[in-house]
Predict the 3D structure of the following.
Amino acid sequence: MGMLFYGGTADPILIEDRTLAHLKVVIATKLRRNESFTLSWKHSDDHPPGRSTIWLHPSIPLRFVFDEPEPPKLHVEWITALANSANTSGGITLVPEHMTPPDGVDAASS
């Protein structure tokens, strides 16, 4: 399970490594362009029901921590879908990967 540390808090946001690797690409691209946006996700089953949203801004500290030492192959369609959602007024909504990448279509690792 990967962790996203946001702002000054020591409490991580737990996100599966593969999902976090895809999010990292989208988030880094948006922040590199000085673009702010929101990231929303549903709470996991081991937390009270609900959802959370954070405002991502280039001036707020952000750190990605992965369980796996090797980065996964990235799925271009999923990155595109996440990037497109980041450009909407609703921001990125964290959804599971639902597209099956054909062999040889993955992007370079993060």
Notes: Residues 101-110 have pLDDT under 50 and may be disordered. The helical segments are 17-32, 76-86. Residues 17-32 form the longest helix (16 residues).
